[in-house]
Amino acid sequence: MRTILQNPSQIIMVDSNGKNRKRGNEMNELHILLEHSIIIEDGYIKDYIPANKKPKNIDETIDLRNKVVLPGIVECHTHTAFTGSRADEFRRKLNGESYESIAKSGGGINSTVESVRKATFEELVENIQPKINYFISQGVTTLEIKSGYGLSFYDEIKLLQVINHLNLKNKIDIIPTFLGAHTYPNEYRKDKKKYNEIIINEMLPYIAKNKLALFCDAFCESTAFDAATVNQIFEQARSLGLHIKLHTEQFNNIGGLKTALDNRAVSVDHLEVISENDIESLAVSNTVSVVLPGVSYFLNYDFAPARKLIESGATLALATDYNPGSSNIANISMIMSLAAIKMNMTIEEILSAYTINAAAALNLSSITGSLELNKKADLSVYECSEYPEIVYNAGKNINCITMKNGEIIYKNY
Ligand code: NIG
Ligand code: FE
Q: Which ligand does the CA of 76 lie closest to?
């Protein structure tokens, strides 16, 4: 099957010169191709040809005049596998209670756990699918989804099975991450050691044996897991073949970053309170820094130091952290706008952060995240003639085509 994407106004390749990531200043180099068409063969990017050429043996022609082509958006950090609403806690927060104090009183993550535990496999699938559709409509071709709202052997496995089922049911790639160490479930608040043992000796071996997750994540925070426990969990996860991610330096600096780097984490996520020294060691490492401006906005506290990280040479990615408590935001345009205005990132840095670097945060940047030859034909197409419009249109979805493996899976124009 050969498809030609004819004459878009700009092709934003996000070329990484074969490095499959962009560090620091490289994030400003997007590599823009004008007056060219893209040839796709059997789901892969085969060639770029001058727009005035009419090649032979083409099965499908797609006219992209006055449109901008970008690599498919990679959404590398979400908690999309949830049910229920925490609007009431949101109301309490607006009336002065803090996110941490709501969590300490048994609410927060644990209120979503209650709702997820009550839901059947089918109810979860039915509830989560529309959330995935919304991401697809915004150009997302790869979506990471964490467990973390089950917090018992049965319910964590149920959630991971739901995520894996949704991966099979959808044309985009859905990457499952195990987050059993999200917080202590209410029934183990007084016996944390027992819950740690369940994660290490029961959940992880079952998940690895049944290939239910690619990554093991944890929340290293004073209201959640300490660094020593996270280290034990990660050692077990790595010995079983899982890759590592960590929620760390969100509110307090309790040694999470060092633990993540010691365990060769693929990404560290949040980083709102990362120290100056840690910025340096993170920036020179191969671990991707994932920053989540939606959380700082939604909880109204400091943004992660994206500029300092980039200027120190870090590989920086952006994501929504879509979840019902700290970032009830699945709108990628809004995240891009926050990154521009509140984190002072350039438009080019933002687009690199949401494509090639987000793919690197999922270990997938050798096959997706840029429009380099022989990568998957995963792309998002925008209703505009110049790429700055994508970030300038704050909160507005101007994606009009989502293409996965060379197939149009969403169209709106
Ligand atoms: O990434 N930091 C911990 N976990 C989520 C919040 C989840 C929730 O409140 O339900 C986060 O911000
Ligand atoms: Fe998160």
A: 2
